[in-house]
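Structure in, sequence out. Go:
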């Protein structure tokens, strides 16, 4: 079974490069350019892993992650957060939500492929509690 990867980023040129690279290596890939589209893709495409730009318009990364934790129709999956913002990469969180891996932008398609493979190989499906997140 081919693993499904959803890549959500604001840069369409970069998205296409990521999509092509991951598809060439056997992954089924969907893309999103904003938070609303990302959540819709999560529900329909049901990825095994989400690559997420925390600065997406229309909901942002934190909104997408909130839906993962609060909406049973959105699958709970490992998340690789990529950001070009000047923020500490020591914190593996987007807002109050933990992420599996965090990478600084720009990230080459080959480096993304490496991180995707690593995260998927380490991914042990754990049940995470759904419900409101206490802030």
């Amino acid at each position: 079974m081919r693993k499904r990867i959803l890549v959500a980023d604001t840069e369409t040129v970069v998205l296409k490069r990521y999509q092509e690279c991951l598809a060439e290596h056997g992954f089924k890939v969907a893309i999103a350019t904003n938070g609303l589209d990302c959540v819709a893709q999560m529900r329909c495409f049901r990825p095994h892993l989400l690559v997420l730009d925390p600065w997406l318009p229309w909901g942002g990364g934190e909104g997408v992650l909130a839906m993962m934790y609060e909406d049973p129709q959105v699958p709970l999956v490992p998340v690789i957060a990529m950001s070009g913002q000047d923020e500490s990469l020591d914190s593996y969180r987007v807002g109050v939500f933990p992420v599996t891996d965090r990478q600084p932008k720009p990230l080459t398609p080959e480096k993304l492929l490496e991180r995707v493979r690593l995260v998927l190989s380490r991914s042990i499906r754990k049940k995470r509690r759904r419900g409101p997140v206490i802030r």
